[in-house]
Amino acid sequence: MLKHIFLAFFLFPLLCLAQRPGKDTVLRYFNTSLEPVKKKEAVFVGVAVKNETGWHAVVYNDSLRIIMRGRYLDDECRVKDGFFAYNNDLGLRYMSGQFTRNMKTGWWFTWFPGGGIKDSVFFKNDFPDGRSYRYFESGIVESEGTYKDGKIDGEWTWYHENGQIATKEKYANGQLESLECFDSTGMATGSNCAINRPPAIKGRYGGVEKFIKDSLRFPAEAASKEVEGYVAVKFNVTKKGEVTEPVILGSPDPLFSQEAIRVIKSIPAWYPAIWHNRVVEYTYTLNIPFYLGENISPVTEQSLPDLN
Fold first, then answer.
1. How many CA atoms lie within 13 A of 87 on its CB side?
2. pLDDT, tens digit, for every residue of 264-302?
3. CA–CA distance from 209 to each of 7, 199, 235 (Å)?
4. Where are the extended beta strands (E) located within 125-210?
């Protein structure tokens, strides 16, 4: 993977290396979090060029696309200080904003893959502190409100996809104090609606973790090989309560993968997730245990956005 990026530096030329010879131009190596690492630990490679304002770095993925630009105070690329822009693997922007000595400051923005703005949040000392706006892909505002010292605070409004108000919420130090609910026509429906509710299996199954635990069968062939471990699997529950094709993220044995997929596909109908009085798609990430003679439950990772 890295060899392709090294080729890019020979072809990326002279733009940096010839204009800034010697100690003014350095290669640096980065992990998946785009933090500097040693060469042997690298996933991405970047070049940093010094000028009067600091070290300006550009980082590439293995498809030779730029995935980050930013300014550092040091040649080791450890102190972010300036504007940073991040792109996805296709080279499309997804986040940008300002750092001051490794702390987010001012407005930070994220974008949808299609190019529309996804959210804008004001930061102070690396914490949200000020106005925040989220948007649907259509461009309609999804929510607006204020953070204080990293916690949701004051009055917040959340909207349905048609632009009508879904909830009016008031917070103090991150705690909900009052709530008004509205249907998709804008009609008030009282103060009893869900703010953050994950999807649930229809029927009396005791939750997805218990359903999987009760339905799982340890493959006989894997038992004969004395193989054990966890299968990490991801799937979506749609707004209609349907499960999309699950994806195996990691598994110690293909037999476990097949069994995990079988059980997930056997899950009955779902009630979809609710977030701020709106039906939303939900991503489940489950670590499913395959251990003989041990009573271990699957572990779920929450996917609904955290208010804070």
1. 16
2. 999 888 999 999 999 999 998 889 999 887 666 666 665
3. 48, 12, 14
4. 127-135, 141-148, 151-159, 165-172, 175-182, 188-190, 196-197, 200-201
CATH topology of domain 200-301: TolA/TonB C-terminal domain (3.30.2420)
In the structure encoding, which two tokens stand for residue 14, read together? 């002279």
Where helices occur in the chain by DSSP H, the ranges are 2-11, 208-215, 220-225, 254-265
Contacts of residue 289, Cβ cutoff 8 Å, sequence gap at least 6: 229, 230, 296, 297, 298
User: What are the domain boundaries of the chain?
Assistant: 1-98, 102-192, 200-301
What is the CATH architecture of 102-192? Single Sheet (2.20)
* Angstrom distance (rounded) from CA 57 to CA 47: 6
Sheet holding 279-280, edge to edge: 196-197, 273-275, 279-280
